[in-house]
## 1
Amino acid sequence: MSAPTWDNILGEQSCPLCLFTWNDIFRFFAQSLYTWVTEETARRALAARDGCCHCHKEELRRISTQQNLCDIYGPMTARALEMFAVSEDPQAIARLGAGFDCPACEVRRESEARHTDEFLERLREEHFREGYRASCGLCLPHLTNVLKATNDAEQREFLITAQQEQLLRLQNDLAGYAEKWAVRRRHEATAGERAAPRVAVEKFASALGQWPGRTTQGQETI
Ligand SMILES: [Zn+2]
Ligand SMILES: [Zn+2]
């Protein structure tokens, strides 16, 4: 997928905020990987933050070669050994592996806040509203963020009504796909039905922390 824009995002059958955020995180990893591999100071800075959280470590692993991972995790391992040499404090040990200060999470928070504001701004346009209503909509975690970010009662009502319609469509698509799968007619499934299992998983848990849409497309044709 090329870089998402507000003009093309609603046709993607994924939560728009997930896609924008994922794109920012991908760009962050693509740019950071180079400095982590080539610059000792950048590797040490990452090690000082105790690396990535459980979700973003997968994204790091996917774009890294084995050699990259050796370069990146060498200083982190050294730091852990230094800590064990001077302390047996359980809290310090827990912190080493928890990714509390994950740099990709920082990118995620910034990206989500910025795109939430943009989304609310776009919702003032009738044309965008129509497109949003017909799309699979926001995932529930991002819907929660957006509802918290607006005091506009009319916007909130629109978002809740749209989400109900989107969930109903998803329910029908899941049932339609399951039925066609059962009678070996899944080739007759619509694009919406084929995407429904992935869309359902992303609807409840967001598409973050995985390679959304682009690399899970394979699942839709299995
Ligand atoms: Zn989302
Ligand atoms: Zn993270």
Note: Residues 212-222 have pLDDT under 50 and may be disordered.
## 2
Amino acid sequence: MLEPRFSTVVVALFSLLVVWRSLPTAESAIGVNWGTISLHRLKPSTVVNLLKDNKISKVKIFDTDHGVLRALMGSGIEVMVGIPNEMLASMSSSTAASDIWVRQNVSAFVGKGGVDIRYIAVGNEPFLTSYSGQFQSYVMPAMLNLQQSLAKVNLANYIKLVVPCNADAYEAELPSQGAFRPELTQIMTQIVQFLNSNGSPFVVNIYPFLSLYGNSDFPQDYAFFGGTTHPVTDGANVYSNAFDGNFDTLVAALAKLGYGQMPIVIGEIGWPADGAIGANLSAAKAFNQGLINQVLNRKGTPLRPGIPPMDVYLFSLLDEGAKSILPGNFERHWGIFSFDGQAKYPLNLGLGNRFLKNAKNVEYLPSRWCVANPSRDLSDVTNHMKLACSMADCTTLNYGGSCNELGAKGNISYAFNSYYQLQMQNLQSCDFDGLGMVTFLDPSVGQCRFLVGVTDTSSSSQAYRNWVSVQFLILWGIVVFLV
Ligand SMILES: *[C@@H]1O[C@H](CO)[C@@H](O)[C@H](O)[C@H]1NC(C)=O
Ligand SMILES: *[C@@H]1O[C@H](CO)[C@@H](O)[C@H](O)[C@H]1NC(C)=O
Ligand SMILES: *[C@@H]1O[C@H](CO)[C@@H](O)[C@H](O)[C@H]1NC(C)=O
């Protein structure tokens, strides 16, 4: 008689243990942004395995790249897909347009064994001040159309529409005074009402790094999570880091619209590790680990004690060497992994692994580099360098970058190699009028890495495009010269 009871207890205890063991993963809300504006793209399946190996179960992408979606099929990973700002006008124009988009880019991938799409981001930071309102009027009509299209295919209850907002959508001297920019009050009211009626969260991107980078008066330690000598006192509340202050400014802005309890998701947050003073490995590690620990400790903020953001998507998974450097050279270096899936620093995501695991089975080109030929006079190299760096990524050479100390010749070699790898080690691409030369000795020094490209077949079309534009640039150069 005792035995069955005993085993029941054991089973109950065991299931309790299983539930308890799985709780931390179920509760932790850390995901990543997976952008693909890359010069050397890893195979999507390699990236999905990287996510799985690191137990990352939430990913945000910026479009609906079918190669990426196919790789995510059956992975169990929750996905936020995106509609680029440039498509908002068409989405807002008719339900016919949104119907096709939903059919081609969502319904075709969901279902058993498919992609677990949970959110659709309608635009990406569409209210950024620098867009001067050009996308503003499309957001709400696009959402209404998309909601109808989702309802038609019975996905409206499962997939939620959200609008990732930049933090410059709201402002205040002190967090408690937070309010949306006056010209956004009306549209934000509509959006927030819509989100609330669908049980969707407010998604915001917060970047203490940009506050620090753009403002020499910004106290450096306030950007991190280790305490500050410059706390911000707001009535009874004291803020010791920029993230909390920014988050509560949003909470106050939402409260002004009557939605102070609305769940908040951090759509992007992170720290670049190269390309600027203050963008380095130790700072990136300190920021990201501090953020993760604070979220997982469920500390919350003064206006939402004990209630951390419901999800936090780190920016970013991988470096993206083809991104515009208009914001700064750091823009290509946000990854917690380098472009080829190698962890840049130890980071505990709180998802079960104590450290990041590198990508497996990455297919590299052969171990070959292109460098400046030491026996040649390099005084005529400027145009070659300019051309190479306009196509490939040379941002680490600049002040604050990991390759800034290479010296003149090292700079040239770095530029030559970056270009050579971009051209998939095409022999001609290392010629540079005889100034370049292929070597089998890795020229990397210290933290400055001379990369070797990866061989994702889907990036060969990109290399071809670049090659065509090189020809064009050369032609153009000749024309300019002749004129
Ligand atoms: C589906 O998404 C892709 C990639 O984001 C886009 O290029 C394409 O135009 C979309 N399809 C429709 C019908 O809008
Ligand atoms: C890294 O950046 C931080 C600030 O972001 C700075 O305090 C630190 O000195 C930098 N470290 C190096 C080695 O440059
Ligand atoms: C190498 O290139 C970088 C970026 O253009 C520049 O700042 C640096 O001064 C160069 N170094 C030398 C020795 O020319």
Note: Confidence is low (pLDDT under 50) at residues 1-26, 459-483.
## 3
Amino acid sequence: MKFKIILYECDKSQKINWYLSSEHTLACRVPLSFMLGQDTTHETICDLVRREGGAIYKYLQVLNKGYYLTNKFKYVGVEYSNKSKHKNKIILDNLLEGLFLANYEFNRHKTNFKGTAFNISTTFNNPINSASIIGACIARDLVNEPLSHLNAVKLSVVLKKLAKKSGFHLEVLNEKKIKDLKMGGVLSVNKGSIAKPTFNILTYKSKKSKRKNPIVLVGKGVMYDTGGLSLKPTPNSMDMMKCDMGGAAAVIGAIYALALSKSNCYVVGLIPAVENRPGGEAYVPGDVITMMDGSTVEVLNTDAEGRLILADALHYAKRYKPELVIDLATLTGAAARTTGKCGLVAMENYRKEIFTDFSDHMQELIKSGNIVGERIVVQPFWDDYKDELKSSIADIKNLGGPEAGHITAGKFLEYFVDYPWIHLDIAGAAFLQQDYLYHKTGGTGVGVRLLVNFLINNN
Ligand SMILES: [Zn+2]
């Protein structure tokens, strides 16, 4: 049995609303006359519609549960009412996105489990939207997969399959190559682990792209973070630490989506993948390590490990003479405390003493964030914060003071950067303990749709 969602026009003064109009039909009033780009306040309409998609999904699940067996439905379709003047593809796609994202299930480790997901039959108007939903769900899968099934080496195996399926190019550097390159950050963090680290390079350049220099995306791939010898306190704080590769998952999902949809862009993804564990060989607080760029870091807390592996990747990015580098990382608790699950924090090395003046790239990224519902809050990036990283025995230390920890973490990364750069700390939004809007408990795939939207608009 099929369930139909029929779209009607609501005028500007009306709120989006919907109601059950017959046993298997929902009438849904949405602003079909809305056009993207009319004015910037309209950016948020996209996400309002997407959120309704998520709400409708939840309603349909409850409804279906209550129906007699013969009246239950599996298929859900969305169509325009023949009364509506406008056939608005943006609105339709956003509603579908909400439905599709909410329809996600991660049940591959449940035996004999019959999923409750619907079969949503209407296809997207814009192929990039369906590709970015697929990419977001791949990122969610990667985040939800526990360490027992996904360590750094296994991630590279998954990447090979994804590369083949979508058409991006993959190069995997193994431990020997990582040693040859003297990636001291990557090697030190992984020292306590039996599993080997990998450094993954994903490249996608469309035939149409006239770009000489790529936009480089860097994703933190700490497959599991115990904190190392600076062990996290056991009650609860380690339970979700499989999500510490949420940045890597976002980069992978985005490049997969761009390659799959053959979008016009030139993008390189760099993913250092490690495990942070205590162990006989583990690096210790107080150690001084030499990074790939030759500088020395005094390690004062082994739980500030993400920045160490990112620093090597950011240095590696210099060889591309990138037009822009964006890194994504579940980096700090301070970032999570700033926005919670509702957004991401961003920093950039652009005229950072004048906090109100953002680069064009940052302005574009903020706009993309509003459209896809992954909102960005730019943080101050004054050099005063840098002073906290002074070390008495090495060039720099990996830990600042107790305040503004997300910004001092950003300042640490900035030390390894000599190109236009944006740092996104996604610690608050990457993983949920409860369903929220069109996201299920677990990985959200945050960053994928943001990056895809930004990159197709800046090709
Ligand atoms: Zn950590």
Note: The pocket of zinc ion is lined by residues 225, 227, 276, 303, 305-306 (CB under 6 Å).
